[in-house]
Design a protein that fits this description.
Length: about 150
């Protein structure tokens, strides 16, 4: 379940605000991102929705792994993620919080490991634990020749 080291994904703007994401796994399909109107056409999820999906997926996988340790039973878990959008003092839109609701079927709820896992699984979710702590992000803007035009460092 661990992903140690580094990985790189590639994003390329198509038109307007549509961004194609190409993952580093050959079997993983590309993903189209877009902004909602008035900027984009909502042709795909935007970054906020992707962040909510990432946190909810990670918690889902973490709970399933803790409870089953092997192949989890099909259709045993549903998850809902709600993002709470807020405005800063400068009127910038931010994700002010997230609510993740995991709905387990009777088989998972009755699992021998449930009492132990309910107190552990969140700590093993890479994404939500990283979000909670705050993730440092280095940013650079380069031209096509590789010259750095801006750096956040």
């Amino acid at each position: 379940m661990s992903e140690e080291g580094r990985f790189t994904i590639h994003l390329e703007q198509r038109e307007n605000y549509e961004i194609n994401v190409r993952f580093d796994w050959k079997k993983a399909a590309d993903l189209l991102l877009d902004e909602p109107p008035p900027l984009g056409e909502a042709s795909g999820p935007n970054a906020s929705r992707l962040l909510a999906a990432a946190a909810a997926n990670c918690m889902s996988a973490s709970l399933l792994y803790c409870l089953t340790k092997e192949e989890p039973p099909a259709n045993s878990l549903r998850t809902e993620a709600t993002c709470i959008m807020v405005r800063t003092e400068k009127n910038r839109l931010r994700i002010g919080g997230m609510e993740v609701r995991l709905i387990v079927n009777d088989e998972l709820a009755g699992a021998k490991r449930f009492d132990r896992c309910k107190d552990l699984f969140e700590d093993f979710c890479i994404v939500s634990a990283s979000i909670r702590k705050g993730i440092p992000i280095k940013v650079s803007v380069e031209d096509e020749k590789g010259q750095i035009l801006h750096s956040s460092e």
